[in-house]
Specification:
By secondary structure, the chain is of the alpha+beta class. The protein has 16 helices and 28 strands. The strands form four sheets. Strands 12, 13, 16, 17, 18, 19, 20, 21, 22, 23, 24, 25 and 28 form a 13-stranded mixed beta sheet that branches.
């Protein structure tokens, strides 16, 4: 039987990590689904698509408005909805499916109660084939999605695939499909379409994407080097005891592929905030410090707070400590809205402000007006120390304008350190924060210069054509393909703010000469490859380890214990040998216990097998796994192409 329920989902996506609610979203009225209104064809399609059979008869269904936070997408989805189906069975588990009114699958999740199922082995190729078969049944634009990433969850042995939409080989910056396939259960257990712009992104028709670029890559990069070149900057690196490291960095701009105009493009990347926790003080502590630390009174703090938020009344105040600072945390009420304000208890300078309302009047002021309002606010009520107002920029959305003013120390930008001010349509500051912490500055040991850093980024493969969905529809830009602001240091490879290598795309100038071009391109989409090399170039041990592990630290004990590689430190910068690649791949399959056994290995599998010495057992396993045949060459120095092809076999 069908259960009749009403359901509303208000989905608020954060357009930037520091924003609280910078997107307009109104609560829609609940939509009741009666039995007679159930789309039986849709239910049959979903049950057939995901094999929902015996044990899952009764279900619940609810309707939500289609979500979008973009003018163009809101227009596309104004009359569209999503339906959520949920099956629950005490014995078998539960299944949830969310489908758009266009028939696209937004989300599918299946949970099993039975944990004793026998694991079965399925290859990556088999799962890829299953994905290619099911995609056209789930998405009207299925042929435009390509597999871009692949991994295996070690604990559960589940395959995880990511897919991105491409229009004539040009990626759409936002929107990814993530698919999990259970090797144990022999079926898909999770399918998600994820986008910061909402599920309405699935509705964009192919005809709305114009792939013609009037500006070529060289011209675009010349504009980029003029408008937002990589410059010597300071990177907060929390993993190294709050150290500021010297790097080359830029808040990347995007270049309009039609006009060549540059725009601020804030990528989808984490905002590096590591604020110290406020600790509330008990009455005895407050009594001890009052009159000694030169603190302003609570009455003074309340008076200023009510002045800053005109028309609000302070309802509560408490004294807290933050490292060496003392802060007043104040809660205010303005009609039906609550505001939160933090003031430095010594000088009553604003540390943070959170004052959101339900006003949806769009901020229509230009960038100069917004920046002036933000600048005046900070200079009047907060501290402008280390702020570079000349570098301020504005990010607009449907309601608010967010002004970001970067932090500079000794003329160097501090990466991802900003004063952030959100201004609503009435010209009032609704949000203010500063994520400034004290760091030790590392000595500048960079050996590359600014020109080299910019050239490295240009040749990294990350700068390319991409579609970004604007309020007027899809626009073609030259920008970051990975969605990261670039960082270059002495390693001369592209990294993100966590100093992790970015492999968004690998460009080999001799790719067309390879008979395995298709395999190598597929690996590139899965972020597997080597930067700045030709396929015929050799690969050093450290380059290989950096690609596989995400770091370039090599020590003998770890390499021997974890991967069976001997004398690794001495071989660090030498070309990778076949025997060390084979050993790494075999050990990575958690076969170390089996490799330590004796007397179970086939003799004379390879010619002169004993010459392999300590590598004999890994070669026998590698043969069984299909990584090598009998024509082995353990001392051979491998090329990029040879390494990639063996890595593909390993997958």
């Amino acid at each position: 039987m069908y259960k009749k329920i009403g359901f509303v989902l208000l989905s608020v996506f954060l357009l930037t990590p520091s924003s609280q609610v910078l997107a307009d979203a109104k609560v829609a009225q609940p939509v009741q689904i009666a039995t007679k209104d159930i789309d039986k064809k849709e239910v049959s399609r979903i049950k057939e698509l995901f094999g929902i059979k015996k044990g899952f008869e009764d279900f619940e269904v609810s309707v939500d408005p289609s979500t979008s936070h973009n003018g163009y997408l809101k227009n596309l989805s104004k009359d569209k909805t999503t339906k959520s189906y949920h099956w629950q069975d005490e014995t078998n588990g539960s299944i949830s499916v969310q489908v758009s009114s266009d028939g696209d699958i937004i989300r599918y999740m299946k949970f099993f109660n039975d944990e004793e199922m026998i694991p079965l082995e399925v290859s990556r190729e088999e799962v890829e084939q299953k994905i290619l078969e099911i995609l056209p049944k789930m998405y009207k634009n299925a042929k435009e999605f390509k597999i871009t990433d692949f991994s295996i969850i070690p604990e559960s042995k589940e395959y995880v695939f990511s897919l991105k939409r491409y229009i004539h080989d040009i990626p759409v910056a936002d929107g990814n499909i993530h698919i999990i396939y259970s090797n144990k259960l022999q079926e898909f257990t999770r399918i998600d379409f994820e986008s910061t712009l909402g599920d309405a992104l699935l509705m964009v028709p192919t005809k709305d994407f114009d792939t013609k670029a009037n500006i070529d890559k060289d011209k675009a990069f010349e504009i980029l080097k003029k408008e937002s070149p990589l410059k010597l900057s300071l990177l907060p690196f929390a993993m190294d005891k709050d150290l500021l490291k010297h790097v080359y960095y830029t808040d990347l701009k995007k270049i309009d592929a039609k006009t060549g105009e540059s725009e601020i493009y804030w990528p989808y990347q984490n905002f590096m905030e590591t604020e110290a926790k406020d600790m509330a003080l008990d009455p005895q502590e407050i009594k001890t410090i009052e009159g000694i630390k030169g603190l302003k009174t609570e009455a003074q703090a309340k008076t200023l707070a009510e002045k800053i938020i005109d028309g609000a009344k302070a309802e509560s105040i408490r004294l807290t400590s933050n490292k060496e600072n003392y802060l007043y945390e104040i809660q205010l009420k303005e009609r039906n809205h609550t505001a939160f304000l933090t003031l430095n208890a010594k000088n009553l300078k604003i540390e943070s402000l959170d004052h959101w309302t339900d006003k949806d009047t769009k901020n229509k002021m230009d960038d100069a007006q917004n920046i002036k309002l933000a600048t005046d606010f900070i200079k009047k009520y907060s501290s402008s120390k280390e702020l570079n107002f000349e570098e301020a920029f504005t990010i607009h959305n449907n309601v608010y304008a967010e002004v970001r003013i970067p932090r500079f120390i000794d003329g160097k930008k501090v990466v991802n350190n900003f004063a952030v001010i959100a201004i609503d349509g009435s010209g009032k500051v609704s949000y203010y924060s500063k994520n400034f912490l004290d760091y030790e500055i590392e000595k500048n040991n960079l050996t590359i210069n600014e020109m080299e850093a910019n050239d490295i980024y240009f040749n990294s493969g990350d700068f390319g054509l991409t579609f970004i969905i604007k309020d007027g529809g899809p626009k073609l830009y030259w920008s970051s393909l990975s969605g990261n602001n670039p960082i270059i240091d002495n390693d001369k490879v592209l990294k993100d703010v966590y100093l992790k290598e970015i492999h968004s795309s690998f460009q080999y100038e001799d790719l067309n000469e390879s008979k395995d071009k298709e395999i190598i391109e597929k690996l590139s989409h899965m972020n597997i490859g080597f930067t700045g090399k030709k396929l015929k170039d050799k690969v050093t041990l450290v380059e290989f380890i950096s690609q596989m592990n995400g770091y370039d630290d090599i020590n003998d004990k770890e390499m021997l214990n974890n991967y069976g590689i001997r004398d690794a430190v001495n071989k660090r910068d030498k070309n990778l040998l076949e025997k060390d690649l084979v050993s790494y791949l075999v050990y990575s399959k958690n076969l170390k216990p089996a490799l330590e056994l004796d007397g179970i290995y086939r003799e004379n599998l390879f010619e002169n097998q004993k010459r392999l010495k300590e590598y004999e057992k890994v070669y026998i396993f590698a043969y069984a796994l299909g990584l090598v045949d009998k024509s082995i060459a353990p001392e051979k120095e491998l090329t990029v192409e040879e390494v990639l092809l063996m890595m593909n076999k390993n997958l």
